[in-house]
Specification:
Blueprint: H1 17-20, H2 25-29, H3 33-56, H4 62-67, H5 82-97, H6 103-119, H7 128-148, H8 155-171, H9 176-197
Length: about 210
């Protein structure tokens, strides 16, 4: 997108949502509040339409949870300062770029996840609804754990954690909150033990509380 001075009114004619959602940080910083609000408003309009379609289908996708939207909450520029608009731009652009921000993308995600489970020997019983419920619950647990355990982004921990989640879910007698607490404690202990072996301080890496959701 061409560079635009703060005092110039940004021309959005012919600018696609895809293009506008991929502006660099340096480009975003060049806009004043009025111009950035116009860009974010256009992105929010597209995002809220996707969100409405997902909610009508009763989906709760990873993209929705990452953006922390849903239950009637929408993307908005109302009463936001320039700094808050920049944060809103990041939030809405990440949502729009995520494959699970659309029904089609989410269905593809579910198929791929089910295949991945099957390859690891996890057989999800039932049809599409059961598959969605199982995978939704797993991804909610993973999302929750990642907020508290950054090391979960490392593949070795990720897959071992997913195996444990599958085991707990297939067992069928534990609540989602109980599974979260148990795995949060296990991840903390596992990582701390590894770091003790390496003589590395872990105090900055963990939420050491055993809180509820």
């Amino acid at each position: 997108m061409a560079k635009i001075k703060n005092t110039e009114k940004v021309n959005l004619t012919g600018k696609s949502v895809s293009e506008l959602s991929r502006l660099s940080a340096s480009e975003i910083k060049k806009f004043d509040r009025a111009n950035l609000a116009r860009i974010v408003t256009k992105l929010n309009s597209a995002a809220n339409k996707r969100l409405k379609r997902l909610e009508q289908s009763e989906y709760s996708t990873p993209a929705m949870r990452a953006a922390k939207v849903g239950n009637g909450k929408k993307f908005s520029v109302k009463d936001k300062s320039l700094k808050q608009l920049r944060a809103e731009y990041i939030r809405v652009s990440n949502f729009l770029k995520s494959s699970t921000s659309t029904k089609k993308g989410y269905k593809t995600f579910l198929r791929n996840m089910k295949k991945s489970f099957e390859n690891r020997g996890v057989n999800i019983q039932g049809g599409a609804i059961e598959t969605q419920n199982f995978i939704d619950k797993e991804t909610r647990i993973i999302d929750w754990l990642r907020e508290r355990n950054p090391m979960l982004y490392e593949s070795a921990y990720k897959y071992e954690t997913m195996e444990k989640i599958n085991e707990y879910l297939n067992n069928g007698n534990l609540s989602e909150s109980t599974i979260k607490r148990r795995l949060n404690k296990w991840l903390k202990q596992t990582y701390e033990q590894q770091q003790r072996n390496s003589s590395i301080d872990t105090s900055n890496f963990f939420d050491i509380t055993d809180d509820e959701e």
